[in-house]
Amino acid sequence: MIPSAIYTSTNSGATWTATSAPSADWTSVASSADGSKLLAVTFSALYFSTDSGTNWVSASTPITYLAVAACSGDFTKWVAGSSDPFHSGGGGWPIQTSTNSGATWTATLSPGPARPSIASSADGSHWVAATRGSVIGGGTGPVYISIDSAATWIATGSPSTIWSSVATSADGSKLVAAMNNGGIYTLQFTTPMIHDQPASQTVPAGSNVTFSVSVFGAAPLAYQWRFNATNLLGATNALLTLTNVQSSHSGTYAVMVTNGFGSVLSSNALLTVLPAVVITQPASGISTNGAVLNGLVTPGPRTTVVWFEWGADTNYGNATSAAVVGEILAPSAFSNAVTGLRLAGLYHYRAVASNSLGAAVGADATFVTAGPPLTQTSAPVTNWGPVASSADGIKLLAAGGGTIYCSTNSGFTWTPTSAPFTNWHSLVCSADGRKFLAFVYNGPIYTSTNAGATWTSSSAPAQNLVSVASSADATRLVAVGTQIYTSTNSAATWTQTSAPATNWWSVTSSADGSKLVAGGSGMIYCSANSGATWAQSSAPFEYWRSVASSADGSKLVAAANDTYPGYAGPIYTSTNSGVSWSLTSAPGEVWVSVASSADGTKLVAAAGLCNCFTPIYTSTDSGAMWALRAPGANWSSVVCSADGNQLVAVVNGGGIYKSQSTPPPVLSLAPSAGDLLLSWIVPSMNLVLQENPDLATTNWTAVTNMPMLNFTNLRNEVIVPPPIDFHGFYRLKH
């Protein structure tokens, strides 16, 4: 642009006079209603004049790159818009507003994806804005309006395009907008249009309540408030104030707004008047056997007693000690500690308040107590990477510092295997712990069938495999790198699948190897036929670093992060084999590894990429609630037993840690060809199946039939004949 001057005219444009404004790349001008006060914008500065342009003064503004300015008729309200070429748009364009002629400014956003053109009504309450297009990347949008001095915006029904300029009448009811390389559009607000509806409120008895409404429309505007569809006498302003409300004031409130062109009825706002307003807040101080329950209460002008109800379900069954809160109309916090809770237990609670008017309860909330802490095993300190486990957690495999270690006693002792010293990247252990597979980054695959005593090498696909998963018997394998490969013969041969080439980072398999899930850069793909075909799931765009599956492949968990330190990613779950996904309540962390129990109810997630010392979280309800399980460390990988009760986690630059919980096992019974099929998820502790013909006695005896591992669902199964007289009882005893 060529720098130029600012000119003014005092005879409707018949003649023009150059002002003393500096020569600059002027982009926008605005005037007060009487023309004595002017506002002008260049890309680098904002100027104003209070003598019809004779003299100009530079005004301060927080915006570096200016594009547009506008003012109210009395010149007290200003708006200045940015032309920053590096602003990407998408969520609005930076603007600043002032209510004192530029003395102070408040940051907000204009509507639309690019820099705006803005104009104001005479009183500065009504604004109109339209997208002018950004310096880079363009940008289109409709014409927007605001009736709260540019704090919030709503779109009109105009075309979505690039606009050159907008203007408004003094009362803000008539708008005009000029299209870039197009026509000129006008809009007149005749029948009133409600911008901000009355809001519902919940208050304690004795409070004062105000309902409000914001309206566009040609003046004059008339208001009539209604209570439960009946007109309220004398309630004819834009604000409705109720004093000392009681339960009789509870109901719906609405307002009819009318002008010379018609009328409009607002939506209903519900007023709920309670003896006291009580809110259940998140629990804090959660430990292995206790927590602090928190609440907020607004008692109003009556002394109120508060406490908590809590228990294992929504019947609660327990109550904390009560506390007295005096008369106050502001929220007051209260807390109670509960102790003696079970490990990794799910608890419900709610806040309760009571006074002379009655009782009120808060919403139900839940928390999960922490599980048993992870304790360091005897494994050496080194740069641990992958870890794998048998279904019962007795056989464990971990690679660190170039060596593969094996434990045959649930991690109590560790022994180096005879596997060669190299850069191990992924490990696989069959459900029965009889077969190990180890994968070298950009190298061969090693297999052991004798707990790591000897290993046999075989060729791998010619690429850097970063993650491998297998069926429970370790026969069917799936491996990912830039491509996805499958094997049906324990890695003897491999087949490249039809999945697209990308940066795949994680893969998981159902116990039978039929359902596969792979996570990569921005997407998750699923296969329901052992990798023959693949389809992209509906998972959102994330960097999916780890995925895990239940034994049947129906329940999935996926965790995300980025390669840069400090990026916090989410955890999603699916209950329908990846058809749909739900964001869990897990905190954002630099997640690196997730694992799942066979039934998908117990989940564990570890974070720690790039020396980010971050924690381990666990869930006992398929990801609905998460509890902190281990403090921050540079965790590399985590694995759990089939029942989810044994956790093993390894640290890059640290040790191997283990945790074991002992919740009651669940025994299932089903008919099987005239016999009975007893089954339970493969446990991580010694359990004995017992029978008793009569609960009136203590004559429990061990069932002699040996359980068999079902590789398709990771359950131990025993078939027994039906008891005499079809009357008998069975249990699992630790």
Q: Helices, strands, pairings?
A:
Blueprint: E1 7-8, E2 17-18, E3 26-31, E4 38-42, E5 45-49, E6 57-59, E7 66-71, E8 78-82, E9 93-98, E10 106-110, E11 116-120, E12 127-131, E13 143-146, E14 154-155, E15 163-168, E16 174-179, E17 184-188, E18 193-196, E19 201-204, E20 209-212, E21 214-216, E22 222-227, E23 230-231, E24 239-242, E25 251-259, E26 262-265, E27 269-274, E28 277-284, E29 290-298, E30 304-311, E31 318-319, E32 323-325, E33 332-339, E34 346-355, E35 358-361, E36 365-368, E37 375-376, E38 382-389, E39 396-400, E40 403-407, E41 415-416, E42 424-429, E43 436-440, E44 445-448, E45 456-458, E46 467-470, E47 477-480, E48 484-487, E49 495-496, E50 504-509, E51 516-520, E52 524-527, E53 535-536, E54 544-549, E55 556-560, E56 571-574, E57 582-583, E58 591-596, E59 603-607, E60 614-619, E61 627-633, E62 635-640, E63 646-654, E64 656-660, E65 668-672, E66 675-681, E67 688-692, E68 701-702, E69 708-710, E70 715-720, E71 729-733
Parallel strand pairs: 19-27
Antiparallel strand pairs: 1-2, 3-4, 4-5, 5-6, 7-8, 8-9, 9-10, 11-12, 12-13, 13-14, 15-16, 16-17, 18-21, 20-24, 22-23, 22-25, 25-26, 25-27, 28-29, 29-33, 30-31, 30-32, 30-34, 34-35, 34-36, 37-64, 38-39, 38-63, 39-40, 40-41, 42-43, 43-44, 44-45, 46-47, 47-48, 48-49, 50-51, 51-52, 52-53, 54-55, ...
